User: Fold this.
Amino acid sequence: MEKEALEKTSVTLLGLGAMGGALARAWLTAGHRLTVWNRTPARTASVVAEGGRAADSAAEAVAANTLVVVCLLDDASVGEALADADLTGRDLVNLTTSTPAQARARAEWARERGARYLDGGIMAVPPMIGVPGSGGYVFYSGSGELFERYRETLAVPAGTTYVGEDPGFAALHDVALLSAMYGMFAGAAHAFALIRKEDIDPTAFAPLLADWLVAMAPAVHQTADQLRSGDYTKGVVSNLAMQVAGTPTFLDTAEQQGVSPELLTPYFALMRRRLTEGSGDEDLTGVIDLLRR
Ligand code: FVH
Assistant:
């Protein structure tokens, strides 16, 4: 075991919150030497009990290994935690959720301090970490060389998907996917609200809803194809004119069920706007253009 640990990349990890704790356990289980630091020191106890080493300061943890992984609350906490650390020669992998602009600024900040930088956007919740086949993965962007060097180590907690040299791209992919998720949750919330006051068992309704969302999800491929070609009428099955004509049914049903339409109306308004521009034979893809500022 000791020999195995020596052969594997040693990791420094800053941040032992719900996600950082899960990352720590995954690397320890896989036999990596791990040095951790957390602002609240008590949180390091369980990692130490599992074979990790706790540093007294972030600077000390950074000094311990070339590979420094950061998983803190937000971008500001990364700046605070690393304020006194010497990053010269370090390979910084930042898994803290950020905006693309924050990630780009953080990459530049790291470069000015002599570190190489890789940004990560985690597409997983803590129970998915270190569980092969859980479907969890991390978007990476920034130094491709760094990604290749640590590919194996980074793949221990979750799958890896590298999305380019631009350090902001991992955050952008992360936020884009999560934004789509919130749209889906919003639609599901409206659907449950519609049935809420009826004698319909939500647990019987849920599988119908889930199957429908899964069946509709591949529509994004046609959207992508239309965006690429610029032809929003390509392969249209249910055109915009027909869909706009159907919107009163949705609004009236909400009214009849005593449900606020507030989650639907912004999208319907965009559909109507696109229709008035003369795009009735298109798919819904034109709405994307209306969103661009
Ligand atoms: N948990 C989740 O489901 C999501 C899944 C997708 C990715 N996110 C992002 O991961 C980052 C860390 O999230 P987390 O779940 O570990 O978050 P917490 O459990 O709240 O732990 C936060 C850690 O950050 C430390 N911290 C906060 N502020 C500071 C600061 N100013 N200086 C130094 N450290 C700071 C905090 O320390 P402490 O409170 O224990 O002292 C925790 O270690 C995050 O970007 C998610 O968006 C998770």
